[in-house]
Structures are given as C-alpha cells and as structure tokens.
Design goal:
By secondary structure, the protein is of the alpha+beta class. It contains 4 helices and 3 strands. Strands 1-2-3 form a 3-stranded mixed sheet. A hairpin with a 2-residue loop joins strand 1 and strand 2. The radius of gyration is 15 Å and the shape is elongated. The termini are far apart.
Length: 94
C-alpha cells in the first residue's frame, strides 16, 4: 500500500509538529550523550538542551569547553549517528 508508514516516521512527524519536540529530543540526546561519553564528561555538564537543530551545553570545566569546541563536528556526527537522524546541526557551548 502507498499509504503505509513506519511507527518511527509517524512519531517523528508528530514530534516535529508538536511543542514537545525539543523537550523530547533534549532528553533523548542526553541519554545518547551518556551512552557515548558516559561519566567521563557528564559530571561536568551543568545543562544540556536542544532547540531548533542546536545542542546547547552549559559546562563547569573550561578545559572541557575547549575539547568540545575542537571535536564539535565529530561529536555532532556521533550523536546524529546514534539518534539515526541528522538532527543536531550545531553545538553551542557556554
């Protein structure tokens, strides 16, 4: 049938159209972050939020800010691969 959709596609469509989207993706990205980087960096992150393609990180460590800035494209690539979508286009570190 031409009108068949996969449940994942329907969820993404729903989330894109709802105001819950950024909140959902913030939580999902946080979980992926923990899976990828574990406690290595997590205890230094004060806040992690996602909005309109940008991942906002508030960090406790200046050294980690520099490291994330240097590895920004690699981090984006790894997180998007785990999410299964090119959702994150930029990382803003503060």
């Amino acid at each position: 049938m031409a009108n068949e959709f996969h449940i994942t596609d329907l969820m993404r469509l729903f989330l894109r159209r709802s105001k819950l989207s950024d909140d959902y993706w913030s939580r999902r990205i946080r979980q992926v972050w923990l899976d990828e980087y574990g406690a290595q960096w997590d205890h230094k992150i004060l806040d992690l939020r996602f909005k309109s393609g940008t991942l906002y990180l508030t960090l406790h460590s200046a050294a980690l800010k520099s490291e994330i800035h240097l590895q920004k494209s690699r981090i984006i690539e790894r997180l998007n691969a785990r999410i299964g979508s090119p959702l994150i286009r930029n990382i803003y570190v503060q």
